[in-house]
Write a structure and sequence with these properties.
Neuraminidase, mainly beta, about 500 residues, Lipocalin, 5-stranded antiparallel beta sheet, 3 domains, Immunoglobulin-like
Length: about 500
C-alpha cells in the first residue's frame, strides 16, 4: 500500500469458532499503531483455514489468499481469496475459490500484484500432475473485480515426483517469475530449487525452467523470490550444503529475468552457523539492493530461534550490512519471518513469537526498520593542494542524501590541528546541491587546512581534510614616480629606476 501503511495476515487458532481462521490488521508503519482492529478474512469457518498470504493492489486495497480445509466440493483442501478495502477493512469482493481442479489437496498459495490492475496466485496442487504427484499451478485475476482473467495453468514442466512450495514476484510488462522446490530433478535425486518467467496474459513460459542452486548434493528447499528491476531477480533458499552450519544454511543468487542465466554465483547469506538457518524471506530495496531475513537456531541470547537479516548488493553478491537481529524479545522461539519493502530505505518484518503473548502462546509481532544512508560529499574547492588561492576564498562542495533528508553542513578550520568552526549551511530535501562559505582575511603565502561535517540528523559524514596555499604578497609599485632634484654633473646617476645623465655643453 502506501509508504505509511502495511497489512499483516495470520492464522489464529479457535478464534472463528472452529479450528484455525485467517485474521488481519492494518498498521501505521511510522508509529506501529493499528489503523484498524484485527478482522476475520475468511467467511467459511468450518475446519481449518491456514497459510494466508497477502499483497497490496493499490494504496487502498489488498488481496488475501489462503488454504481452506473441506471447502472444495470434494471435501479436500482448496485455495480461496478475497479483496479488501484498506480503509474500511471490508470485503470488496466475495470470498471465491481459486483452483479449478478440486480432486485431492490444493495448498501453499502465494500472491503478487501485476501491472494493469491484475494479480496472480500460484499454489501446489496434489494429483494434477501426470503421476498424481504435486505440481505448481497459477491463475491471473482482475484487481478490481476479483474475476479470473485466465484459466489455471501449470508452471513447472510436467514431471514425475513432487513440485512444491512456490514463491512468486512480479516483473514489468505483464510478466512474473515463480520459484519452487522440485523433487528428484537435481542430479543427486534430492530436492532442488527451480524457477521460470511467465507471461501473465498467455500463461506461457518466457524462459525455460532453470535451476537456481548450483550445489546439488543433499536437499535445497523453501525458496523465496523478488524482482530487483525489469530484468533482474533474486532467489534465496535454505540448503544442506557446504557451510558453517551443522544443519542448514541460507543461500542466494541473482539472475537475468529475460534469459534465466545467473548474474552472480551462489553465495551464503548467514554467518552464524551453529544450528539450523532456514525459511528465508526476501524483498528488494532498490535496483541493486535486497534484504533477506530468516530463522536462526541458537543465535538469540537464550539459545533459541531468532529472526535475523542482512542487506545485499545484487551487483557484487556480497552483504553491505552486518547480520542483525530483528526481534527484541528473545525468550523462547521467534520463527517464520515475512518481509516487505515499504520504500527504498524502509522495510517491515512480521514473525511468530512463542511465549510473548500474555497467555504464553504464539503471537504475531512486527517491526519496521529504517536503513539510513550516510550523506555524500563530492567536488571540494579549493581542491586539495591548490596554490595561489585568494585571501578571501569561497569554500564549496556538493552534498546529497540518498534518503532525502535535510542536511546540516558545518565547515571547520583545522590549520592548527585543533578544529575551529567557520560556520554552517543547510540543505533541504537531500538533493545534490553546491554548498559554499567564504573564509575571509587570510594571510599571504600560508597553508590552510579545512574539512566539513555533514549530518542528516541520524548519521554524519566527515570529509577528508583539504589544504590549500594562499598567494604570495606582490611588490607594490606606486602609481607615479617620485621627483628627485639633483645637481647634474658629467656623471650618470641611477635613481629610483631612472637613468639620469648630464650632457656637456660647449660652455661647460
Amino acid at each position: 500500500m502506501s509508504d505509511d501503511k502495511l497489512v499483516i495476515v495470520w492464522e489464529s487458532n479457535h478464534q472463528d469458532g472452529d479450528g484455525y481462521g485467517i485474521y488481519a490488521t492494518i498498521i501505521d508503519a511510522s508509529t506501529g499503531m493499528n489503523i484498524t482492529r484485527e478482522f476475520r478474512v475468511n467467511n467459511y469457518s468450518d475446519r481449518l483455514q491456514q497459510h494466508p498470504e497477502v499483497c497490496a493492489l493499490s494504496e487502498d486495497s489488498f488481496a488475501v489468499t489462503w488454504s481452506s480445509s473441506n471447502q472444495d466440493p470434494d471435501g479436500t483442501m482448496g485455495i480461496y481469496m478475497s479483496i479488501f478495502s484498506a480503509t474500511t477493512a471490508k470485503n470488496i469482493t466475495a470470498e471465491s475459490r481459486v483452483n479449478d481442479f478440486i480432486n485431492y489437496s490444493q495448498s501453499s498459495s502465494k500472491i503478487c500484484a501485476l501491472s494493469n490492475n491484475k494479480f496472480v496466485i500460484v499454489w501446489q496442487s496434489q494429483g494434477q500432475n501426470l503421476d498424481s504427484s504435486y505440481g505448481i499451478y497459477a491463475k491471473v485475476f482482475d484487481s478490481m473485480t476479483g474475476v479470473n482473467l485466465t484459466g489455471e495453468f501449470q508452471i513447472n514442466n510436467p514431471l514425475n515426483y513432487d513440485q512444491k512450495s512456490p514463491s512468486i514476484c512480479a516483473l514489468a510488462k505483464d510478466k512474473f517469475a515463480v520459484t519452487w522446490s522440485s523433487e528428484n530433478q537435481d542430479p543427486d535425486g534430492t530436492y532442488g530449487v527451480y524457477a521460470t518467467v511467465v507471461n501473465a496474459t498467455t500463461g506461457f513460459n518466457i524462459t525455460s525452467e532453470f535451476r537456481a542452486n548450483y550445489y546439488t548434493d543433499n536437499g535445497q528447499a523453501s525458496s523465496s523470490i523478488c524482482s530487483l528491476s525489469e530484468d533482474i531477480l533474486a532467489i534465496t533458499w535454505y540448503g544442506d550444503e557446504i557451510g558453517p552450519s551443522t544443519d542448514f544454511d541460507i543461500f542466494a543468487r541473482v539472475f537475468n529475468a529475460s534469459t534465466g542465466e545467473n548474474i552472480t554465483q551462489e553465495f551464503r547469506v548467514n554467518h552464524f552457523g551453529n544450528g539450523k538457518q532456514w525459511f528465508p524471506s526476501i524483498c528488494s530495496l532498490s535496483d541493486d539492493f535486497f534484504i533477506i531475513s530468516w530463522g536462526s537456531e541458537g543465535q538469540d541470547p537464550d539459545g533459541s530461534y531468532g529472526v535475523y537479516a542482512t542487506v545485499f548488493s545484487a551487483t557484487m553478491g556480497t552483504n553491505i550490512t552486518a547480520e542483525f537481529r530483528v526481534n527484541n524479545y528473545t525468550d523462547d522461539a521467534q520463527r517464520m519471518p515475512s518481509i516487505a519493502s515499504l520504500s527504498e530505505d524502509r522495510v517491515a518484518f512480521a514473525w511468530a513469537s512463542e511465549g510473548q503473548d500474555p497467555d504464553g502462546s504464539y503471537g504475531v509481532y512486527s517491526r519496521v526498520f529504517f536503513f539510513n544512508s550516510a550523506p555524500e560529499i563530492t567536488n571540494p574547492g579549493p581542491y586539495h593542494g591548490q596554490s595561489e588561492v585568494d585571501l578571501n576564498p569561497t569554500l564549496q562542495l556538493n552534498v546529497s542524501d540518498a534518503n532525502g533528508q535535510d542536511l546540516t553542513v558545518r565547515f571547520y578550520d583545522n590549520t592548527s590541528g585543533t578544529p575551529s568552526a567557520l560556520g554552517f549551511e543547510t540543505v533541504s530535501g537531500g538533493e545534490s546541491e553546491v554548498v559554499s562559505l567564504t573564509w575571509s582575511d587570510l594571510d599571504y603565502n600560508t597553508e590552510y587546512k579545512w574539512y566539513v561535517l555533514v549530518s542528516d540528523g541520524l548519521v554524519s559524514t566527515t570529509s577528508a581534510q583539504f589544504s590549500f596555499t594562499t598567494k604570495e604578497e606582490g611588490i607594490i609599485i606606486p602609481s607615479f614616480l617620485p621627483m628627485i632634484f639633483l645637481p647634474l654633473t658629467a656623471m650618470t646617476v641611477f635613481i629610483a629606476g631612472i637613468y639620469i645623465s648630464r650632457k656637456k655643453t660647449k660652455d661647460a
